[in-house]
Each structure stands twice: as C-alpha cells, then as structure tokens.
C-alpha cells in the first residue's frame, strides 16, 4: 500500500483543527456517498468514500493522527482502521439524518464525553404578537410553556437505586466488530443496556415511570427589546427541552410579530404619519402638535406649505437595536378644504382675489 496523504484527501491543511476535519469529512461524505453515485461511477464513489473514511478515522483520533504525522499511513497497514463503523455512517447519510452529525463524529473519533450518549435537548419555538407602541418602548411578556423537565423526585435519573452495569463494567461504552463492504471495523459506542450511564436501575421512579422526565407547565418572563421588528427571533438560552444523559437543555426561540398601526406606517426604524392641516395654517404658517408613537412633539409649519409636503422629525422614530439613537418620523401634511362655509367666510375668501393657479400654469405652457 502506497503512503497516502490523508490531509490532501480531505482537502485540509496539516494544522487543521478537529472541527475543520469534521467539516471537510461531512462535505465529502455527502458528495461521494455510494447511494448518490451515478450508475457508471458507482465503483469510483465507493473507493473515494472508503478513502475519506479511512483518512478521517486516523485524523479524527488524536493518538492515531500523531502516529500518522510521524510515520505516515504505513503505520496503519494490516488489520484495517479500528474505531470507525462505515455502515453506521452510511445508514445515517442514507436516511438523510444529519442533525446528530457532531455526535456521530465525536462518538466514533474520541470526542470525549459525547461518547457517553449525552444529547442536547430540543429547541422550542414560541410565537407572540406585540403592538407598535410596545415595539417602540420594549416590553416584558410572560411566556407559558408546557415542556419536559427533569423529574424532581429522582433528579432525572428515572430510579432511586442503581448498580454497576455488568455489560460494560460501568464504563458506559461497548465495542463491537462489524463486517462491512470495506472489511472488518470496530466501533466503540454507548452501551445499549445502560444507555451509556454505566449503571442499571434497580427500581423505577413512580412519578416519571422511570423516564427521568416529566412534562410541566412553566411560566417565564421574556424581555422584548425596543426597536424589534416583525419576524425577529429572540433566543432564551436553556429554556428548551431538557437534554438526555446529562446533556444540555435546548433553547427557547420567541418569534415576534409587530401589529400594523392604524395611523403610523413603519419603514425599518422610521415612521410615517399623515396629518391634516387647514388652508389658513398652510398659507400663513403655524406651530402644531404632532403625535409620536410614544407621545407628542411640536412641528413648525412654514408659510406657503403645499399639500403632501413631508417634514422630517429626526430621532423621533423607533430605537435602533444594535446601537444608540433612533430613526426619524416623517410627517406628511394634507390640506383640508372645508365643505361648508358661512356667508362671512365666503366673503373673506373672495376678498383675497388671488390669481387662479390654472391661469399661471397655462401661461407657462402657452406663453
């Protein structure tokens, strides 16, 4: 057998971290799995898949990697690569189950405590709706959950008395040898009898029926920050489902929907509101009170203001999430024309004797 460059096979540097090895292996395993091979390239894919598995079974193990770096692949001639079950990996890729890929990798290549069978709990999603006013100021909401928790009676163990597992002698791990299309391979995995705990229960907890888990209703307070937008998700660490075998809990994700407002329109952190003003205010100018999402402020209307004019009130919009300050509020004014006038009002308007706008417009066109 010729000396092989496992680093080159995986497309990584010799200084690659275990995380980089893992990433390269997953990418190549997905690409060259025999089940995905065109019929005319089946043999080629099988050989390539075997090579990358061989490479990662060495580079994924710190001790074997040290031997390889010193002596090359010839150090592993005769007897095949131990500690890697190709058929197990193939079945995971065949089923499309990539969610636990880290557990597979770490469990087979000396990933420390992951081999104990510890698994992270599932994440939870909670959807909530808030008003635009609440989005402007931030709000605390009480979230009601119905989720799995560790049983308090047995501390999540499922039993009160245990004895050392005689199948794995308390290690929580067992080795098994399996024949695959690529030869005999030995895998170290969680003990199926004690589920990697190293001990067997002698009785069952009546509260959780030996499961160690019990479903409970729980209330937690979630702080929704000012400036949040629809579709944003807030993460509350550790408030998902509990993990198994001392694994960490998942996270809770709170998906926020901000209701549309009757008067304000939102454009990211800017707001737009349309307000009516009188003909007199537009002509002579005025100082008016303008509603804000959190109160009101004064706005100066200059003389001669035209309808549909938009004024910008800086810093009166919604707060920014990532830094200080706020967006702007745009105020569009619309001149309202009174539908009913008294005789006195009509006489006063007639006294203005202003030029009709259409005359000056026609003069511009036709001269």
Q: Key features?
A:
HSP40/DNAj peptide-binding domain, 10 helices, 15 strands, 3 domains, Helix Hairpins, three-stranded mixed beta sheet, 367 residues, alpha+beta
Output mean pLDDT. Answer: 79
Radius of gyration: 35 Å
Q: What is the assigned CATH homologous superfamily of the largest domain?
A: DnaJ domain
Low-confidence stretches: 78-88, 91-100, 110-116
In this structure, how is the largest beta sheet organized? 4 strands, mixed
* CATH architecture heading of the largest domain: Orthogonal Bundle
What's the CATH C level of the largest domain? Mainly Alpha
Give the overall shape, derived from the CA principal axes: elongated
Q: What is the first-to-last residue Cα distance?
A: 97 Å
Which strand order does the major sheet show? 10-11-15-14
Q: What order do the helices and strands follow?
A: HHHHHHEHEEEEEEEEEEHEEEEHH
- Give a count of the beta strands, DSSP E runs of length 2 or more: 15
Task: Determine the fraction of residues in helical runs and give it as a percent range.
Answer: 25-40%
Helix-strand blueprint:
Elements: H1 6-10, H2 18-32, H3 42-59, H4 62-71, H5 86-95, H6 101-108, E1 124-130, H7 132-137, E2 139-150, E3 162-164, E4 173-180, E5 183-190, E6 199-201, E7 213-224, E8 233-236, E9 252-258, E10 265-267, E11 270-278, H8 279-284, E12 286-292, E13 295-301, E14 310-313, E15 329-336, H9 343-352, H10 357-366
Parallel strand pairs: 1-9, 11-15
Antiparallel strand pairs: 2-7, 3-6, 4-5, 8-9, 10-11, 12-13, 14-15
Helix pairs in contact: 2-3
